């Protein structure tokens, strides 16, 4: 059976998003566009500065789907309107926030649900993002924030406390007022990833998110008075999960809400500029 | 190997720390140390605890210091008595003194203690048990230049209420009643933050300082109270980022870690909970895809500090530098003072104060 949707990827998207690998893992749905093909069904672009304009261009060129790899915070209002008018599915492949352990695609147990059950009795949220030396701390911060928002829904009173060549620290509050403290660390000593720990009155939830470069599973653990529970491990990278979501929207003819949710991240990120 | 007759130990203060930490640790060292005198202001508590180990009891410090069978004095009384009792124990001609942290509540007291220790020649050990943990000591032998190159340091302490582990260690008599703090009172929050630093963070602040060469130049970026007891504190020196977290809640799962992270290497130490004889910490070095784990070893830091005291009392080991103890204390006091100032300033900036917020932060 041949693939339903042809895909092209910019070199930047291929490098950041391992597009060929993800596409090859969904062979009945996606396949590389033939050379010289004017308009692919799906355009994969890198999420560097100016990505919204590039995505807009892909929509105007007639792509039915757009995959954006690691987008930086940027105003998505115009893109959102264009995607809606053209019926184009724009999916964001977020470095950590797209990990399937955070939000289940099939109704299974996930970190978001575990957090929602625990947030009412939250005492503190502590999180650490690790990136390689040379990583732009601001970019790491955006990716870190995206992962946090995926499980907390909102963060109040965010404030950047420090940022420099070795990382950053920011603080905030959960809806019940419990303190949020998060920091980024640049080091080659440990693999890149994000740890999120929510402490409650009698236990908590911890999440360890790996890099999407391989299908390492995230770990989500829920601790309560009766013991600890490891949620089922999912050997699927954030990249593949994003592509699988795009497949579902293209197949069903539905529109993802990625841009709407990303607008909340962009708005929150903008508040750091004021602190 | 034991060197002759066991040394005699006298303990000032017979509360839960003595009952659940020191007596169980000493029970493992009967060939070198023997508890001979227990003092507590509550005479019945002193008698009850002393009877468990066949020791003399009293309600007077002078009686204990005058007991010639006591070679080593352990000071486990409330913080405000520590300085005077350390000095009195040194002047009483004892062979060594263990003082629970903090050994003084200000720099002036610390200087006085240092002078008396130098004058009398009595070695003093401060009960910062993690610095005697074999896991920490093993890490020290392997960390190369990490204290000079680390840029980020973390201490994270998640503990169940003390009673859970006290009850795993012994049968407590006269446990102090838990209070119900008024979180809307800024003085309560300030007191809890002060207690959080000088009673909990202080366990690991000597470790943090070891990786912070410019420890005299510290700045508080945030200090938040965590309910029911804990803190989220971010600190900065010109060369280090320091993150301190603590949460004491009703969980059953303890987690006590220390981390020092540089560009090319990182150290993580996972400590066992206080009170229980659960062996040493485990130290893990990471260098890219390579990890090296040291430990666990069979005893914890409390047993380690008693072994050290026995050696100091016998004169087979040199005492720690008084300056190290003073620097550790002044580092902790500086953080405690700045933290209290920070929560007070935050409170003053917030319309309506803490009572106006629904949440858990100070």
State the CATH superfamily name of the largest domain in chain B.
Answer: Dihydrodipicolinate Reductase, domain 2
Number of helices of chain B: 12
Mean pLDDT of chain B: 91
- Weakly predicted, low-confidence segments of chain B: 353-362
Q: At the fourth CATH level, what is the homologous superfamily of the largest domain in chain A?
A: NAD(P)-binding Rossmann-like Domain
Biggest β-sheet strands, sense, barrel of chain A: 8 strands, mixed
CATH topology of the largest domain in chain B: Dihydrodipicolinate Reductase, domain 2
Strand residues, percent of chain B:
15-25%
Large-scale geometry of chain A: globular
**DSSP summary: helix tally of chain A:** 8
Beta content of chain A comes to 25-35%
Q: Topology of this protein?
A:
The complex is a heterodimer of chains A (275) and B (362).
Chain A: E1 5-9, H1 11-17, H2 19-24, E2 30-32, E3 42-46, H3 51-60, E4 65-69, H4 77-86, E5 89-93, H5 111-118, E6 122-131, H6 137-152, E7 156-164, E8 167-173, E9 179-186, E10 193-200, E11 204-210, E12 219-224, E13 227-230, H7 238-252, H8 258-272
Parallel strand pairs in A: 1-2, 1-3, 3-4, 4-5, 6-9
Antiparallel strand pairs in A: 6-10, 7-8, 8-9, 10-11, 11-12, 12-13
Helix pairs in contact in A: 3-4
Chain B: E1 7-12, H1 16-27, E2 33-39, H2 43-53, E3 56-58, H3 61-65, E4 72-75, H4 82-91, E5 96-99, H5 107-120, E6 124-126, H6 134-140, H7 146-149, E7 152-159, H8 162-169, H9 186-200, H10 205-210, E8 219-225, E9 229-236, E10 241-248, E11 255-261, E12 266-271, E13 282-287, E14 290-294, H11 301-314, H12 322-349
Parallel strand pairs in B: 1-2, 1-4, 2-3, 4-5, 5-6, 7-10
Antiparallel strand pairs in B: 7-11, 8-9, 9-10, 11-12, 12-13, 13-14
Helix pairs in contact in B: 1-8, 4-5, 5-12, 9-12
């Amino acid at each position: 059976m041949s693939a339903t949707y042809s895909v092209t990827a910019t070199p930047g998207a291929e490098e950041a998003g391992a597009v060929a690998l993800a596409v090859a893992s969904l062979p009945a749905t996606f396949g590389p566009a033939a050379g010289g093909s004017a308009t692919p069904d799906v355009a994969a672009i890198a999420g560097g500065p100016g990505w919204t304009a590039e995505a807009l261009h892909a929509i105007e060129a007639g792509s039915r789907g757009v995959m954006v790899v690691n987008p930086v915070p940027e105003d998505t209002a115009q893109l959102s309107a264009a995607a809606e008018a053209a019926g184009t599915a724009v999916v964001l492949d977020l470095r950590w926030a797209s990990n399937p352990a955070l939000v289940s695609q099939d109704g299974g147990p996930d970190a978001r649900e575990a957090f929602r059950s625990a947030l009412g009795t939250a005492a503190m949220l502590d999180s650490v993002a690790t990136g390689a030396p040379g990583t732009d701390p601001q970019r790491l911060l955006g990716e870190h924030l995206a992962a946090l928002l995926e499980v907390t829904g909102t963060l109040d009173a965010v404030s950047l406390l420090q940022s420099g060549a070795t990382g950053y620290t920011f603080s905030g509050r959960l809806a019940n007022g419990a303190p949020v403290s998060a920091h980024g660390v640049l080091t080659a000593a440990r693999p890149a990833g994000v740890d999120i720990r929510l402490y409650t009155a009698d236990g908590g939830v911890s999440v360890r998110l790996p890099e999407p470069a391989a299908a390492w599973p995230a770990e989500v653990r829920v601790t309560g008075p009766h013991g600890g529970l490891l949620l089922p491990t999912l050997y699927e990278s954030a990249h593949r999960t994003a592509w699988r979501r795009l497949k579902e929207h293209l197949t069903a003819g539905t529109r993802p809400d990625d841009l709407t949710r990303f607008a909340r991240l962009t708005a929150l990120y903008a508040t750091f500029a004021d602190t | 190997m034991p060197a002759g007759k066991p040394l005699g130990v006298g303990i000032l203060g017979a509360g839960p720390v003595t009952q659940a930490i020191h007596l169980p640790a000493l029970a493992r060292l009967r060939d070198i140390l023997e508890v001979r005198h227990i003092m507590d202001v509550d005479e019945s508590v002193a008698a009850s605890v002393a009877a468990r180990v066949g020791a003399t009891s009293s309600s007077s410090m002078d009686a204990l210091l005058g007991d010639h069978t006591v070679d080593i004095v352990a000071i486990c009384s409330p913080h405000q008595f520590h300085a005077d009792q350390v000095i009195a124990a040194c002047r009483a001609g004892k062979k060594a003194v263990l003082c629970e942290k903090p050994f003084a509540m200000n720099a002036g007291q610390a200087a006085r203690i240092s002078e008396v220790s130098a004058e009398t020649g009595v070695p003093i050990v401060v009960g910062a048990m993690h610095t005697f943990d074999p896991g920490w000591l093993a890490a020290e032998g392997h960390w190369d230049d990490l204290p000079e190159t680390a840029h980020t340091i973390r201490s994270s302490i998640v503990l169940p209420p003390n009673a859970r582990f006290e009850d795993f260690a012994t049968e407590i008599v006269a446990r102090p009643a838990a209070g119900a703090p008024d979180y809307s009172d800024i003085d309560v929050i300030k007191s809890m933050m002060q207690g959080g630093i000088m009673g909990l963070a202080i366990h690991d602040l000597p470790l943090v300082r070891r990786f912070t060469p410019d420890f005299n130049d510290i700045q508080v970026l945030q200090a938040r109270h965590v309910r029911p007891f804990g803190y989220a504190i971010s600190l900065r020196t010109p060369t280090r980022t320091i993150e301190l977290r603590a949460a004491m809640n009703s969980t059953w799962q303890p987690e006590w870690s220390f981390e020092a992270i540089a560009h090319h290497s990182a150290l993580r130490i996972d400590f066992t909970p206080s009170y229980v004889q659960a062996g040493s910490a485990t130290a893990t070095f990471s260098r890219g895809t390579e990890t090296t784990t040291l430990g666990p070893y069979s005893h914890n830091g409390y047993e380690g500090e008693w072994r050290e005291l026995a050696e100091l009392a016998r004169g087979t080991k040199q005492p720690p530098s008084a300056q190290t103890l003073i620097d550790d204390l002044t580092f902790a006091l500086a953080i405690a003072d700045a933290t209290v100032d920070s929560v007070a300033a935050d409170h003053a900036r917030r319309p309506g104060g803490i009572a106006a917020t629904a949440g858990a932060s100070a």
